[in-house]
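name: query_chain
kind: protein
chains: 1
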Amino acid sequence: MLNFMVDHTDHPTAIRYPRGAVTEKIHPELERYGQTPIELGKPEVLTEGADVLFIALGSMVGPVLEAARYLEGVDVSSTVVNARFVKPFDVQSIEALCREARLVVTVEEGCLTGGFGSAVLESLAARQVVLPNVICLGVPDRFIPHARREMQLDWVGLSPHKIARRCRQALWKIDPGHFPLKEEDFASDDTVRILRDVSGSGD
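structure:
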């Protein structure tokens, strides 16, 4: 991506770096996927499945691949798309995938309000693509206390386990007979518990 950025001199470009270690160090499974050539605005399809379509941005590609592996263990197949770009984003390239999936999930390590997920949905709406089952995952519009990045991601529901759980909850609502839940899938991801977790209080 840096090489692409250096060679692309027609317009301003920017790359957002996340906190923490290099993504491939945290999620070594990324090494299994050979990078396709980068084209301006074009996303990359990493895996293909029929139930869930993940559209992941940047540092969330690793956690989403791990979440997809969890879901595969309970017979839920997933398509994982590495968005690569926020703008421009070629929504036409994922339009067919969106129409075919039972559940569409956008995942970003950024603010949900006016964020990447909103932009994707607006682009699809402009093309008259109706998506009855959509989840946008990201950082809520509230103060997130300082902590290790992994803890913060877990608090806001962006850890692999919580991403998978949200998907299972949504699929259960779509077709409870085909996608049964386990007891742990009923747990809430409400981040109001963040301050309690930080303080270490059991109250």
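note: The first strand starts at residue 44 and ends at 47.
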